[in-house]
Design a protein that fits this description.
2 copies of one chain form a homodimer. Chain A is built from 6 helices and 5 strands; from the N terminus they run αββααβαβαβα. The first copy, chain A, has 157 residues and is an alpha/beta fold. The first copy, chain A, is globular, with a radius of gyration of 16 Å. The interface between A and B is large, with 37 and 37 residues. Chains A, B: Catalyzes the deamination of adenosine to inosine at the wobble position 34 of tRNA(Arg2).
C-alpha cells in the first residue's frame, strides 16, 4: 500500500509542476484510506502556508474534525522543511514516508535533524525514505526553470 | 513603538483567553504600521494551523500580496513553536519581539535553538525578548484550567 499512496502523492506533485510551482505532493491516510491530498501552491496563492504538507494537514483535520491527526500517515514527495516538520510533529502524525531528501531545507535529517534530537514534546513514530522518481521530477523542474531564466536573460541582452 | 505593538498583541491574547484557548496574541507591522493581528484559535477552529503566528502571517501576506514579508516585524506574546518558527523564517520576517519564553515548546532558544544554529537558508535579523505581563496571563490561564479540571474530577467521584 505504501507504494500506491506515494504514487498518488507523485501525481499530486505533477499538478504543482504544471503550475510552475516546485513539484511537491502530499497524501494523508488513516486506516489505509486516503483522507487528504494536496500539492504545493505557494506561488500561485501567494500564501507562505501554501506548502503541500500544511494544506494536507489542514484538510485532514477538517475531515477528522480534530487538529490531532492521531493514527495518520503522511506520504510526501520531498523531505519537509522546518515549518512543515513542526506541523507534522504537532498534529501527531504517526508515520512519515518521504520521496526524496532536501539537502538545502530538509528538517527531518538533512539540514536540521529535529527528529533524531528528540527534543520535541511529541515525535513521529516511524520515518521511511522511499525509492521514488521524485528527485528526478524535481531536478528536471529546476533544470527547466534555469533554462527559462536564461532565455529571459538572452532577450534582455 | 515596540511597547505599543506588544500591548496590542497582549490584547489579542486576551481574546484567546476568553475562548478558553491558550492565550497567545500576535501583531505584524511594516513601516511602523500594523498590517495584521491575530490570536490563537487552535481549539475553537480545530485547525492544527490555528496558532496566532501562522494566522497573522497568512493575513499579512494577503495584505501585501506576497508570501515574502520582507521588512516586516512580528510581535508575539509567547515564544514561537517549531512550526511557527519555520514559518517566520521562511516568510522572511526581519524582526521578532517575544513577550514570554516557552520552556516546553519554544523553538527560538528554549527547547530547540534553531536561530542560534543559523542552519536555515534565511534567518531573522533581530530577536528581542520584551518585559511583558504575558507570562502572568499564561500562568493564570493554566492555573484556572487545572482548577476547572479538578472540579470535573470531583464531580466524577
Amino acid at each position: 500500500m505504501n507504494e500506491y499512496f506515494m504514487r498518488v502523492a507523485l501525481l499530486q506533485a505533477l499538478k504543482s509542476y504544471k503550475l510552475e510551482e516546485v513539484p511537491v505532493g502530499c497524501v494523508i491516510t488513516k486506516d489505509n484510506k486516503i483522507i487528504s491530498t494536496s500539492y504545493n501552491l505557494r506561488e500561485s496563492t501567494n500564501d507562505p502556508l501554501g506548502h503541500a504538507e500544511l494544506i494536507a494537514i489542514q484538510k485532514a483535520s477538517h475531515v477528522l474534525g480534530s487538529w490531532r491527526l492521531t493514527g495518520c500517515s503522511m506520504y510526501v514527495t520531498l523531505e519537509p522543511c522546518l515549518m512543515c516538520t513542526g506541523a507534522i510533529i504537532d498534529s501527531r502524525i504517526e508515520r512519515l514516508y518521504i520521496g526524496a531528501t532536501d539537502p538545502k531545507r530538509g528538517a527531518i535529517e538533512s539540514v536540521i535533524p529535529i527528529i533524531t534530537e528528540r527534543l520535541m514534546p511529541h515525535h513521529i513514530d516511524e520515518i521511511e525514505y522511499m525509492d521514488t522518481i521524485s528527485g528526478y521530477i524535481l531536478s528536471r523542474f529546476f533544470k527547466n526553470l534555469r533554462y527559462k531564466k536564461s532565455l529571459k536573460v538572452d532577450k534582455n541582452l
